[in-house]
Design brief:
By secondary structure, the chain is mainly alpha-helical. The chain is built from 7 helices and 2 strands; from the N terminus they run αααααββαα.
């Protein structure tokens, strides 16, 4: 029943676009499902860039210095649940496997005095990171800015909480689908040449 509704809705949208002289199909999409996935991907590109801009500008206001979107994300993940975290956990929570880039950001945040190492001994294994007092102050300023600016901009939108919950659910599902597709592609791809 739901697939019939999807097809009917897709035809209605396609008809509206055609009547307006627009064509939703492009090199990645010719079927209604391909168009829907491609539209989502295109939205993800734009959303990712907009979200990154927000992170950079919001953290600049809060920290008084330029921090990348990745810096802000890692700082907030370390502060999450007020519990120290290691590099592996940070990567898992952010769905990242680029450990060297995470380590670079950790060094940068440590040098800025926003986070610090916590460990039971001086071995590398078991090293976690926690926010410093300075880091918590930056996060508190970011949270206040986020509430007064970003969250406030969403308040006039009727039903926004439900839209956000549904959007989060779809994005979580798509994350799993993209992960599976990436594993299959990586498993079966031909060798690629490294650039010199």
């Amino acid at each position: 029943m739901s697939e019939k509704n999807d097809k009917a809705n897709s035809r209605n949208i396609d008809t509206e676009f055609e009547e307006a002289g627009l064509d939703r199909r492009w090199h990645l999409a010719t079927t209604p499902r391909e168009v829907a996935v491609t539209e989502l991907e295109y939205s993800l590109f734009r959303t990712f860039e907009a979200f990154s801009k927000w992170q950079v500008e919001g953290m600049a206001v809060a920290a008084g210095k330029n921090l990348s979107a990745s810096d802000g994300a890692i700082l907030n993940v370390i502060a999450m649940r007020d519990r120290p975290k290691g590099i592996t956990e940070i990567g898992r929570l952010l769905n990242r496997d680029d450990v060297t880039n995470i380590q670079y950001t950790i060094r940068k945040l440590t040098q800025e005095g926003l986070i610090e190492k916590t460990t039971k001994d001086n071995r590398r294994k078991g090293v976690n990171y926690t926010t410093t007092k300075k880091g918590l102050e930056v996060i508190q300023r970011y949270v206040a800015l986020r509430k007064s600016l970003l969250i406030k901009l969403t308040e006039p939108i009727r039903g926004m909480n439900a839209h956000l919950e549904n959007g989060s659910h779809i994005l979580d599902l798509m994350t799993g689908i993209y992960e599976q597709a990436a594993r299959v592609a990586a498993t079966h791809r031909n060798p690629v040449e490294d650039e010199d």
